[in-house]
Amino acid sequence: VAMAVDGGGWLGWINQLRSPNCDLRPTGCVVDLLVIHCISLPRGQYLNGDVEALFLNTLDCTRHPSYGELEGLRVSAHFLIDRQGIATQFVSLADRAWHAGVSGFDGRTACNDFSIGVELEGVDDGLFEPEQYETLHRIVAAVRRFSPAITPERIVGHSDIAPGRKADPGPGFDWERARAVWRTQR
Question: Is the distance from CB of 6 to CB of 15 less than 8 angstroms?
Fold first, then answer.
């Protein structure tokens, strides 16, 4: 069962940690794209709070050798779904989260302007947990009620909007099964 989005663009049934890595969408912009990503910090390590810290600009970049490249990076998706299926919302659906980077879709660039970003905790060459799909489906249903222009065909991977630059969520994401669920939602 999907829950409603409040007037401020927040899903009340989800943990909320407000990221500063967002801003206002362009005036009159219609949100009509949902982008699925995956992330883990360090790669392949889960449930340690480091992704949340990255999105909140509190990550200690000396904590792991791979974090050096993250120093000064300002990013956040709207949502993160951890390996247990627990979701956290970092940015209001009404605002532009900084998740897509250099990107384009359907002849338009700057996908952050018109998209919602959902991160699944994982790696682009791995599989995702059933609990993550369950939570993702609930989020997709709520987001589509908030932004009805997002159809199942307009739910894409980061690799679809930044080909050659990004590979997530990767071949382990079950698009066929997920789209079958999204087509029956409303």
Answer: no
Q: How far apart are CA 98 and CA 76, in angstroms?
A: 5
Whether residue 134 is predicted with pLDDT greater than 80 in this model: the reply is yes
Local structure of 1: helix, strand or coil: coil
Three-state DSSP class for residue 130: helix
Residue 119, pLDDT score: 98
What is the overall mean pLDDT for the chain?
Answer: 96
Q: Are 118 and 76 in contact (CB under 8 A)?
A: no
Distances (CA, A) of 52 to 11, 21, 69: 17, 12, 17
Active site residue 119: yes
Say which of 52, 69, 71, 119 is annotated catalytic.
119
pLDDT of residue 3: 67
Residues 5-29 have pLDDT tens digits of 888 999 999 999 999 999 999 999 9
Cα gap 173→37, rounded to integer Å: 10
| HEC readout, 18-75 | CCCCEEECCCCCCCCEEEEEEECCCCCCCCCCHHHHHHCCCCCCCCCHHHHHHCCCCC
% of residues, the chain, pLDDT over 90:
95
